Amino acid sequence: MIDFEPKYITFDCYGTLTNFQMGQSARELYGDKLDPAKMDEFVEFFRGYRMDEILGAWKPYRDVVVNSVRRTCERTGVPFDEATALKIYEAVPGWGPHADVPEGLSRLASKYKLVILSNASDDQIHSNVGKLGAPFHKVYTAQQAQAYKPLQKAFEYMFSQLDCNPEDVLHVSSSFRYDLMTAYDMGIRHKAFVNRRHEPLNPYYGVNEVSGIPQLASLLGL
Predict the structure, then answer these.
(1) Whole-number pLDDT of residue 219
(2) Block means of pLDDT (10 residues each) for the chain, length 222 residues?
(3) Would residue 1 count as lying in a domain?
(4) How is 4-63 classified by DSSP, letter by letter?
(5) Does residue 112 form part of some domain?
(6) In what order do the strands lie in the sheet with 113-118?
(7) DSSP letters spanning 93-156
(8) How much is the pTM?
(9) Are the CB atoms for 9 and 105 separated by under 8 Å?
(10) What values do phi and psi take at 97, rounded to 5?
(11) Would you indicate the residue range of the signal peptide (predicted)?
C-alpha cells in the first residue's frame, strides 16, 4: 500500500497513459528502406535524437520530431523528406491509451485530482487525453511551460500553476529518463513507475513499481 494522501496525482502522458507509437510510426514509414537490423538501429537513433532535441531552449514539438527524423536519416544514410517526417508528428493525436488505463484512471478519479504534465503541443494533447476515459483536473504541456521534461523548469511550471509543492504530489511515469530522475532531484518523495517494458526499473530513485494503472489504484486503497 502507498501510505500517502496526495493533493494531486500527476502523470506523464505519452508512454505512461497513451500508447506511445513513435517507433512504430517510423517503422511503417521507413521499414521498406532498411533491413530489419538496420531498422532497429534507426528506431534507436530516432529515440536518442528526440531526447537530445528537447534539452535546449523550447521549440515546437513539430520541430523536435522533424529534426530528430532528419538527424536519424543522416546517421543511417536514408534520404530525408520533411513531408514523410511530418506524418509521424501528425499521427500523434490518433494514439489511444494502454488497455489498462481507462479502468485505473476512473478508479483514481473517484477520489483524487488527476493532472497531466506532458512533453506535448497544445494542438495535439487534448485529443489523446479525451481517449483516456477519465476526467483530468489540469493538463499542462511543454508548450505552456516553454520547457520539456526532463528539465526541472517543466515541473516548476506545474507546481506554480497548481500552487503546491513537490511533497504534495504522487508523480506517475513509465520513464526514469524523462520524469522520475528529475522528480527525485526535485524532492518529489512519492513516485510510481509504471513498468511498460521500455525502461528498466531503477530502485535507487525510490519508486513504487506497478504493472499498470489499476495496480496503482489498488495500492492507494481504491
Answers:
(1) 98
(2) 96 98 96 94 98 96 98 96 97 97 98 98 96 97 98 98 98 98 98 97 97 98 97
(3) no
(4) ---SEEEE--BTTTB---HHHHHHHHHGGGS-HHHHHHHHHHHHHHHHHHTSSS---HHH
(5) yes
(6) 138-141, 113-118, 8-11, 169-173, 190-194, 208-210
(7) GG--B-TTHHHHHHHHHTTSEEEEEES--HHHHHHHHTTSSS--SEEEEHHHHTS-TTSHHHHH
(8) 0.96
(9) no
(10) -80, 160
(11) none
Q: What span, in angstroms and rounded, lies between the C-alpha atoms of 189 and 85? A: 39
Residue type for position 188: I
**Per the structure, how many domains does the chain have?**
2
Assigned C-alpha cell, 33: 528502406
Contact 10, 115 (CB under 8 A): yes
The helix or strand, by DSSP H or E, that contains position 217, with its residue range, turns out to be helix 213-219
29 and 39 part of one domain:
yes
Type of residue numbered 43: V
Alpha-carbon distance of 109 to 205, in angstroms, equals 26
Whether the CB-CB separation of 48 and 132 falls below 8 Å is answered with no
Last residue of a domain, one of 36, 60, 93: 93
| Amino acid identity at 211 | S
C-alpha triplet 192, 15, 65: angle, nearest 5°:
135
